[in-house]
Amino acid sequence: MKREGSKVPPTSLVKIRDVANYIRQALNLGSDKVNMVDLLESVLPQHIPNFSFEVVTRETLGRDEARAYPDENIIQVREDIYIAATDGNRREQFTLAHELGHLVLHAGLGNSRSYARSSSGHRPYEDSEWQADNFAAEFLMPYERCRKLKSKQEIFETFGVSTAAATKRFEKIH
């Protein structure tokens, strides 16, 4: 069973889509493939005051692959995940976009570890992990562009995401 995130203010999928599209437009990314490592290392520091992208040890994050601290404008990623992302691992693009989702959607709510996680008791649209996952999908694979693509293979090739992400996106839209 997928671990739930923290309960956060409810946010609809349409609102998440709007935020993802706004960020893409603000950063002049168009609707093409996004290189998340380049975005986090080079682009965001020019647009977000005091933004920090940190590569840290496995010991620092434990089981977490990455972690966002929205109120501090920090994204940390485990070094093994960073290496995989720089080597072109498609799954890690989603991981990094997911953390960006926390950064932009959950600012002002406390840092990722400062509010309690719960195993039940809130709806998906009130769940920080659900929101960040949907942000990552909307950010990496824009809805309007995906609607025009005819297969999960086209999504996979167009956006450089994993087969699993492309399949889920295609099935959700078509």
Automatic annotation (TrEMBL):
It comes from the Bacteria. This is Zn peptidase. The lineage of its organism: Bacteria, Pseudomonadati, Pseudomonadota, Gammaproteobacteria, Thiotrichales. Gene3D superfamilies: 1.10.10.2910. Transmembrane segments: none annotated. Residues 71-170 form the IrrE N-terminal-like domain. InterPro entries: IrrE_HExxH, Rad_response_metalloprotease. Pfam families: Peptidase_M78 (PF06114). Coiled coil: none annotated.
